[in-house]
Amino acid sequence: MTNQAHVIKTQLPNPPPPADVLLKHVHTAVENLKGVEVVEIDVRGKTSVCDFLVIASGTSTRHVKSIADEVVRESKKLDCQPLGVEGEREAEWVLVDLGDVVVHVMLPRVREFYALERLWTVGDEPPESRDSDIR
Description:
repressor, 32% helix, 4 helices, globular, translation regulation, five-stranded mixed sheet, Beta Polymerase, domain 2, alpha+beta, Ribosomal silencing factor RsfS, NT_sf, 20% strand
C-alpha cells in the first residue's frame, strides 16, 4: 500500500467565475470560520499558475481543515469545483486550487516556516529612502 496524498481533480466551469467574484467568496468562507491573519497577494505577472493567493491561518488541524472545506463549499455556490485540494489528511497546510485563486490554509508554525508572504512579495515595496545616507 502506498502512502499518497488525497487529491481531488475536477475542472472549472466554462467560463470560470471572475477572480474578484471568487475572491469575495473565498474571503466570506474564511471569515465565516474565523480564519486568522488573512492575506491576499496579487501574483499576476509573477507566475502563470494563478492570479491571486489567499493565505490564512487556523488555530488547529481541525480548524485548518474546516476553513478549507468552507472555501470549497463557497466555491461550489459559483458552480466552481476546485481543481485540486491537497493536504487534508494532515491538515497542517491545506491548499485549495480554484484556478485564478489559490488558497493556503495553514497552522501558524507551518506558515511561519514557509513564509509564503515574504516569498511572493519580495521586491514589491519600493526601497526605503536613503536620504539620511546622502549628505
